[in-house]
Amino acid sequence: MDEKMRRGLKTRVNRAAGQIAGIGRMIDEDKYCVDILHQISATRSALDALGVKLLSAHLESCVLGHGTETEHDHAKPMSREQLMDEVNVVLTNFLK
What we know:
The chain contains three helices and no strands. The chain is an all-alpha fold. Helix 1 (3-28) packs antiparallel against helix 2 (33-64).
């Protein structure tokens, strides 16, 4: 993962963390429940977008780049079948 991607992901994480902190403040301030639920929905969307971005990077670097110079330093040596199994597990867990 290059530095630009890492910074972008970190920005998204920080944004989601801010939203979660905001939810805590809303609860402390006894805000209207519907407003809190809207903020929870926005936070979920932010986390989903982060996950999609990270999943895309994984597919590009670790799956398509498997066995090349472009794969992630921590990518495990796997067969194509193992890679597909990993992608299936990751997708299944991510989409729950």
